[in-house]
Amino acid sequence: MSAFAYRGGRLMAEDVPLSRLAAEIGTPFYCYSSSAIEAQYAAFAGAVADLDPLICYSVKANGNQAVIATLARQGAGADVVSGGELKRALAAGVPAGKIIFAGIGKTAGEMAAALDAGILQFNVESAPELEELNRVALSKGVRAPVAIRINPDVDALTHAKIATGKAENKFGIDLPHAPEVYARARSLSGIEIVGIAVHIGSQLADLSPYRTAFTRVADLARALKAQGHPIRRLALGGGLGIGYGSEPAPSIAEYASLARSIAAPVGAALAFEPGRLLVGNAGVLVTRILYVKQGITRRFVIVDAGMNDLLRPALYDAFHAIMPVAQPVSAEPPQLVDVVGPICESADVFAVQRPLPPLAAGDLLAICSAGAYGAVMSSFYNARPPAPEIMVRGSDHAIVRPRADLDAIIADERIPGWLGGAPVAASRAAGSKR
Ligand code: LLP
């Protein structure tokens, strides 16, 4: 059952009416259900329990401290891709020993921070990165635990902008190059080989690409083991899709059975890096209708959330279901409308020619499945402070990120000296070191 359902004519987040939150906080805002996050984690953890894997929540999906802490409390580790995400995961209480650091562009500073923290594993994505990590580890007198991320050249059958497993994608080391990179890794005294990593893309609806990718990883693992490499862990990435509309969500059980039948027999520990699956359907973006404009060819519902709050429709033409917060009562037929934001870009559209019940200015809408890659991808474009974030638990709620203070942000910018402004100290300008 969804955590967001109508009760007594009102759309609820667990036991909290979204209209009440809107009155308290103002719109737009994100609302997350902690029990929905926990339920998804339990569903995934239960499906793979017999494999005794490490489940590293992919923090990039939603890096709010409340979200990471909710998952950490359930036992999740973290998959991070920057020094910033590493900080977030540690601050939310994820033990360093459950953190995997992925990403193709780690800086020496980020590597050093991760080594200092004592993370579980680096997923290394290129030969030069391996050399740099070796150098940083040696400078600290430690060995960096490393899995090489391979690029299995598999089409994930997902949106091109979130496919990562084809040879033309920037990610990972091409499978044919893997043996030489492992051989090189073995010769480096700052590197400790611990496994293999793979991630072929996000929002996979069809599981067959996983079969191919896992098979290629398992074959490589056997070959490397035969050469004496200590392949102790296979990090199988994330990417399992969710239902955004009425389409059925891919089966977690089937996904688990692919890992069970293909990867587990290798005899290495398994790690998974789910992001969207755990939080995507645990969040909505609540927005208020400002105006309804009847054009010659279109009826536009203009709302107070924009692409700066939720970029997915603009960037990927992503579909997000939209529900009125007040349950529609009239028997009037739906109208085809475009739900659009206030930003000066034609891409600032949440829905095109969507059948929705008759709507009027002042009505609240919930844009669904916004828990993953929503708030984290928000920006200040058009000088619009990103929507605040609320988490509910039963009838309780907490503001887990307040609305940004635009005055403070403007005050943080400086007019240069030649325009009469005061200088900023260089140390301040550089920001905190990564
Ligand atoms: N592991 C690695 C190495 C990844 O690159 C990603 C996502 C994940 C795990 C988690 O994938 P998930 O389980 O969430 O699919 N902004 C896009 C999605 C980008 C995904 C990037 N990598 C969107 O809104 O659809």
Q: Mind explaining what this structure looks like?
A:
The chain has helices at 18-25, 34-48, 65-73, 83-91, 108-117, 127-140, 178-187, 208-226, 252-263, 276-279, 312-316, 406-412, 426-430, and strands spanning 4-7, 10-13, 16-17, 29-33, 54-58, 77-80, 99-101, 121-124, 144-151, 173-174, 191-197, 233-235, 269-272, 283-294, 299-303, 322-324, 335-340, 349-356, 364-367, 389-393, 396-401. It has two domains: 4-31 and 280-409, Beta Barrel (Lyase, Ornithine Decarboxylase, Chain A, domain 1); 63-274, Alanine racemase (TIM Barrel), CATH 3.20.20. The mean pLDDT is 95. By secondary structure, the protein is of the alpha/beta class. A hairpin with a 2-residue loop joins β20 and β21 (396-401). The chain binds ligand LLP. Ligand LLP binds next to α10 and α11.
Provide keyphrases for this structure.
single chain; 434 residues; alpha/beta; Lyase, Ornithine Decarboxylase, Chain A, domain 1; TIM Barrel; 2 domains; eight-stranded parallel β-barrel; 21 strands; 29% helix; 24% strand; globular; binds ligand LLP
What layout of secondary structure does this protein have?
Blueprint: E1 4-7, E2 10-13, E3 16-17, H1 18-25, E4 29-33, H2 34-48, E5 54-58, H3 65-73, E6 77-80, H4 83-91, E7 99-101, H5 108-117, E8 121-124, H6 127-140, E9 144-151, E10 173-174, H7 178-187, E11 191-197, H8 208-226, E12 233-235, H9 252-263, E13 269-272, H10 276-279, E14 283-294, E15 299-303, H11 312-316, E16 322-324, E17 335-340, E18 349-356, E19 364-367, E20 389-393, E21 396-401, H12 406-412, H13 426-430
Parallel strand pairs: 4-20, 5-6, 5-13, 6-7, 7-8, 8-9, 9-10, 9-11, 11-12, 12-13, 15-17
Antiparallel strand pairs: 1-2, 2-3, 4-14, 14-15, 14-19, 16-19, 17-18, 20-21
The structure holds ligand LLP.
Ligand LLP is lined by residues 58, 60-61, 79, 102, 162, 199, 202-203, 237-239, 273-277, 312, 316, 372-373.
